[in-house]
Amino acid sequence: MNDLLAEAERELAAKPRSQIEEETAFKWAARAAVAYRLFRETRMHQWLRDSADYYHEAIEHAALADHSGEVLRALREWIHHYIPRGVI
Fold it and tell me: What CA dihedral angle connects 53, 62, 20 and 57, to 10 degrees?
């Protein structure tokens, strides 16, 4: 756990919050994309639910990344390369 605190301290010292939020948004979006792929491969509905949950986390962080909405738009465009519109 101390490693996590040290990593957080380094990150906060090196990056503005907007960058942290953007990076976090895309990490959650990547999780959503992989969970959706796992759903398609296995048809286990838990993966689809997880994908939707991860996508919602991604949206939340993208919305906090900037006031213009540019990151949010970019995230939505990126995720739809991996998850069809309207699926989640």
Answer: -10
